[in-house]
Amino acid sequence: MTVKRPYSSDLRTAQARRTRRQIVDAAGALFAEHGFSGTTVDAIAATAGVSRKTVFSAVGGKVQLLKHAYDYAMAGDDEPVPMIDRDALQQVINEPDPYRQVELYADFVGAVGSRVARLYVVLRGAAEVDPDAAELYRRWEHERHQAMVDGPVSNFASKGVLRRDLDPVEAADILSLLTNPATYDRLVNERGWSQERFTAWLHETMLSQVLEPRPARRQSGAKTQRSRDGEE
């Protein structure tokens, strides 16, 4: 009886992962430059240095390639860690001050937008010509909106800082629009804003459009008394 050596299996797994990453990276670069229709599987295979058959067996067709390219760009790597469990998003979620939370979230959206904006726009365009891409786009947009309702909007409402003239769905509509990667693409990639300018604008806009103004901080008793003494 022949027993397979564990390290042999590990090596094959590692090699498969490297090949998959090569293919997805090549696909992401080509999609970002040439769009969905302008990118072929043959071009992806040639750029990745693999066969056409390997592209399909390792990842799949063009929509799967675009999905994985977006996922990798969103996370910044190909580690099997859900986005919500990653440090950058956990820092936002665990911040107790909702006003500071908005600032951290704007930073997060700006950083992610720099990686995914072009691919998001490619997916949106692909949805107009490919049924599978259209289904993926619709599902992601629904999930993005629902995440706004269940996440920041619910949190702001529970802390009493959500604007009183907004219902939760409207607030989610606004946040979903502002944080849409296409908004980053328009202002930064097309209009030439810096990422820092975009982040500052996003922070201020989310504050003004979704949250009640921050309550004025009360002066300390000593400071208040000194003011009164000065008036006398």
Report what the structure shows.
By secondary structure, the protein is an all-alpha fold. It has two domains: 14-80, Orthogonal Bundle (Tetracycline Repressor, domain 2), CATH 1.10.357.10; 81-214, Tetracycline Repressor, domain 2, CATH 1.10.357.10. It contains eleven helices and no strands. The chain has helices at residues 6-34, 41-48, 52-58, 62-75, 87-94, 98-126, 131-158, 168-178, 181-190, 195-210, 221-231. Helix 4 (62-75) packs antiparallel against helix 6 (98-126).
Give me the secondary-structure topology:
Elements: H1 6-34, H2 41-48, H3 52-58, H4 62-75, H5 87-94, H6 98-126, H7 131-158, H8 168-178, H9 181-190, H10 195-210, H11 221-231
Helix pairs in contact: 1-2, 1-4, 4-6, 5-6, 6-7, 6-9, 6-10, 7-8, 8-10
Top keywords for this entry?
mainly alpha; 232 residues; Tetracycline Repressor, domain 2; 11 helices; 2 domains
